[in-house]
Amino acid sequence: MVFGRLLGSSISLLLIGYYFLSALYVFRTYIDIVQEWVFPNIRTWELALIFICLIFYLICGGFRVLSGLTLFSTITSFILFLLIYFPINLGNLSHLMPVWNHSCSELFQASKASYGIYIGFEALLVYFPFIRSIEKQTKWAHLGMLTNTLQFVVITISNLLYYSQGLLRRTLYPLLGVTKIIEFDFVERIEFIFIFCWVILFIPSLCISIWCCTRILKRVTHLNPRTSLVFVLAILFLVVVQINEKYEVNSLGDFTVQAGFYFVFAYIPVLFILFLIRRKRKAKLNVA
Predict the structure, then answer these.
(1) Membrane spanning segments where (predicted)?
(2) What's residue 209's pLDDT?
(3) In this structure, which long-range contacts are made by residues 248-252, counting pairs with CB atoms below 8 Å and at least 24 apart in sequence?
C-alpha cells in the first residue's frame, strides 16, 4: 500500500529476516539456559530437534492454537511472578541507593540494552487482521503491554535488591540465580521446575515469530504456509546448531536488540508517517 508492489515485497522479505532473527534469539537463549543449568553435556542439535518438532506441531494447529497457548503463557507468568517475594524479602534496600545518579544518556543506553525482553509485540503488525472486533480489543492490548512492563520493572527491582552491582555484573542469568535461594519442604531444586515452566513462556513468542514468517511468505510469494514452515524450521535448525560458543550467543542477542530497536523506533514511525501522507493525498484525489 505504501511502497508499491516491488519495493513493498522487498521490505516484506526483510521483515521475514527480522522475525526469523527474533525467533532465533529466543530459541538459542533458552537452549543456552538449559545447557548451563540443567543438562551441561547435552548437545545443541539434540535440544533443537526436540523443540523444532514441538514448534512444527503447534504452528500447524493454526493461529487459534497459538493464541490459546499464549493465554496459558500469561497465566504461568503470573504464577511464576509470585516467586519474587523471596529476593525482595532477602534484599538490601541500600543496593538501590543513590537514586537518580545517572545521566539521561546513560539511562537511554540502559533502556536500549534492555529492549531484548520486550521483543515480540511487533508481531501484531502481522496477526492484526486475524483479530475480531478490533475496536473492543484495543484497551486489552494496551493493558497487556502495561502489565507486562510492570512485571519487568518489579523483577528488575527485586534483582537489584538481592544482588550487589559487582555480583550482578558477574552473574549469568540473575533471575534464575535467585530461584536457587527458594526452598520448599516438598521440592529441593526449584530452579529446575522454574526453567521447564519457562518453556510455556518462551514457546508462544517463538511460534508466533515463525508463524509471521510463513504468513509474510504466503503474502509475497503465495507459498503454502505448511511448505514454508518446513523450510523456515529447517533453516532455523541449521543456524541454531552453528551457534555453540557463549560469545556467539551474546553477539546474537546484541544484534537482535539493535535490529529490534531500529525496527520499532525507526521503521514503524516512518511507515506510519508515509501511510498518513498517502491517505491524505488519496483523499484529495477523491475530492478532486
Answers:
(1) 7-27, 47-66, 71-93, 113-131, 143-163, 192-214, 226-243, 255-277
(2) 93
(3) 249/28, 249/29, 249/32, 252/24, 252/25, 252/28
